[in-house]
Amino acid sequence: MVAEKSSKTLSVTLRVWRQAGPDAPGKFVDYAAANLSTDMSFLEMLDVVNDELTVKGEEPIAFAHDCREGICGTCSCTINGKPHGPGHGIATCQTYMRSFRDGDTIVVEPFRARAFPLVKDLVVDRSAFDRIIQAGGFITARTGSAPDANSTPVPKTDADLAMDAAACIGCGACVAACKNASAMLFVSAKVSQLGLLPQGQPERDQRVLAMVGTMDTLGFGNCTNQYECSAACPKTISHDFIARMNRDYLKASVRAAFKPVSASASGGAG
Amino acid sequence: MAKLDSKVPSGPLADKWRKHKTEIKLVNPANKRKYEVIVVGAGLAGSSAAATLAELGYKVKNFVFHDSPRRAHSIAAQGGINAAKNYQNDGDSVYRLFYDTIKGGDYRSREANVHRLAEVSVNIIDQCVAQGVPFAREYGGLLANRSFGGAQVSRTFYARGQTGQQLLLGAYSALSRMIGAGAIELHTHSEMLDLVIVDGQAKGIIVRDLITGEITRHAADAVVLATGGYGNVFNLSTYARGSNVTAIWRAYKRGACMANPCYTQIHPTCIPVTGDYQSKLTLMSESLRNDGRIWVPKRKEDRLKPPASIPEADRDYYLERIYPSFGNLCPRDVASRAAKRVCDEGRGVGETGLGVYLDFAEAIGRLGEAGVRERYGNLFDIYHEITAESAYQQPMRIYPAVHYTMGGLWVDYNLMSNVPGLFVLGEANFSDHGANRLGASALMQGLADGYFVIPYTIGDYLAGQKPGSRPSIDAPEFKAAEENIRAATSRLLGIKGKEPVSHFHKRLGKIMWEHCGMARTRAGLEEALKMIPALREEFWANVNVPGSAATLNQALEQAGRVGDFLEFGELLCLDALKREESCGGHFREEYQFADGECKRDDANFGHVAAWEYQGAGQAPLRNVEPLNYEFVKMSVRNYK
After folding, report:
1. Kind and range of the H or E element at B218?
2. Percent of chain B with pLDDT over 90
3. Which of B68, B130, B140 faces A130 most closely, judged by CB atoms?
4. Is B200 touching A (CB cutoff 8 A)?
5. Of all residues in chain B, what percent carry a pLDDT higher than 70?
6. CATH assignment of the domain containing B547
7. B396 in the same domain as B271
8. What is the pTM of this model?
9. Which of B53, B155, B168, B176 to mutate to test the interface with A (most CBs of A within 10 A)?
10. Is the ipTM reported for this complex over the cut 0.90?
11. Which member of B132, B186, B282 has the closest CB to residue A199?
12. Quick count: other Cβ atoms within 10 Å of Cβ B606?
């Protein structure tokens, strides 16, 4: 489609969740945003509204953002009930005002999930994701110990599928979209990326057990296979990875129960 | 006057690093745990350094202003990472990568540093693959490569258009592993606001917790800054909004020299500016120049015609015409200036006249739309989201934008600044790219510094520090630094002026872009040097920073950073004024050849300019480190 170049303007009403802190009461507040260019990004619109609030002596709306090109995973608004807004396969920062109509009321909320406690206004704490990765979302490869990169060929189809999973930006939209606030898509993407590669095999079982175990203790819910996560994902990561992780988890659990372990497994050579 | 000893080892170029590694001091394994190292920043350089230092046994504290280390701006690098693997059998070697980087930098970098970078480039790829970085592969399962500007070999490794993301997630996984193991203490939402110097050595930092507003002191045996570049001094750039100069600027004000701040990179292929509200510019990866052809109409009258209606004979593929051997893959500074020249001639396309075409019609004919989609699909999608135009059906419109900064804190061969104990890595230092960085070399440098240089060189410094000798955070230097930060914060909140912070950032950006952007003149720079102090004065009288210091306050964060840009921008312009030559990304109109190429002055400016702070209101001191080219002959760059 070759769109006509648009330099039109529109005016909208923003209905924004305002909450001073985690323990303060929150509420929706309406703001008028007038004469916005359709070429403006959604976050640029918030910048403009915030500058107007500042000049009026009101406190600006806190919202998370950084790269503004859909890769850092910082931005995190739920717009009109959809994490990252109306577009498919994009983040809030890649949403442009041309996606809305003149006169619209746009409801803007933080990502809501028990494991993502609210910090202020539209900002939530997603450090639970970091803790899941710290529990096992890695391949142990001490710096300096690596063999030549081409000594382990990886079939292109496996590498491509690993890359599909690795595209996750860790934004948490999958959690916000899920009625159970499950982190299965996030966790399964990392488990699948590393499990698909030959380098990831030695720690494959312990990785999936540790990551899923940590996820469960952090207050994320269970998966009930409705796949709202994939639908909301700005990188359109497939829910097939959840099935792949479930298989890995089952196999790892069985092996953990029956696999013999060396008695001196934790001892050094002395 | 600061002492600038580069500490480059003697001996043949190819042996320097190996020799140095065997000669520098070591810290014994049992003693390493007695040393604490602060690493500020968690991009490629910071996270790779923190992870590797922790693996070695040092106690590491890592500070990031983001909510997670995975969000550092290295994540946004699209195109790739260079390495002299010669997997393509096309004649690449460590020497060629070294030579291309030296030449690409317009002979303004240190030979020994660049050679080391090329040497360790091969280890980086091995390391990343071992971590599970899903680089692009060929059908046989081996790694794929593509070409980038300034090189005639294919040495760039990539992961679709998300190479920076994948490399950062690799380093982040190594960092996370060591955090999980208890070897690294991670501080997110933590912005470094001052460097603490005790007895002339860097021994700690002052940090503001961006959520609670709490200001804390942290002591260490050494401080590593990996805080990125300062391109947001231009306001509009391809940097993330949060990227800033604050950490290195405050280190500068504590005595670290700032080297070559005028070396800024303007990337040729970005989506053009549309309006005043704009907050950032988006890069279209240089990899597109492998298959896209850049052109403008030959005649001004054609510039608003639909591009498809302009016949081949009326198009000017100016890069292919002027630089036949490198064509569309000439270096970034050369391509950017060429775009500016054709737009200045009135041949620029699009409503603003500030744009050139990047055309894929020929590539689609050759590879099919599916072939182009496989290589560049995500970039075409990004372009479509922003412009609502399909690059499969009409050429992209692109224009240069600020993208990277080669200047930064001065460091020696060990990556230590002139302040003992203060190390600077990645884009935050000045060391490897001279006056212009080649594509796919930033990721290489960040990871080289973090994985393979600092783990060796920091030991040489720490071995000279008695274990347990680091100062207490109750030392007067810490107390004074903390009070200084508290006072600055109260001052910002107390101004209660009329204009938001963004107002000043935009105005500073315009001054910088107009007077110190792609082309600079003495008169323009002198004017900027009058305008910036005036704007700074206005900022401190009329900025409005709402809210309090005891909570998440994004306006306060931004005010602190813009306040620093308003000081730093002046130094950048001063450096540009005093460097009376053109080289790489620094183009002075007075110094050019008849064909518009850079005219260097090696006799008078074949050196690094390292600026030294002399106190508020005092002119900074311009120190000089001569660049001694022992192995390569400084010559006029030629990409024709």
Report:
1. strand B215-219
2. 92
3. B68
4. no
5. 100
6. 1.20.58.100
7. yes
8. 0.96
9. B176
10. yes
11. B132
12. 18
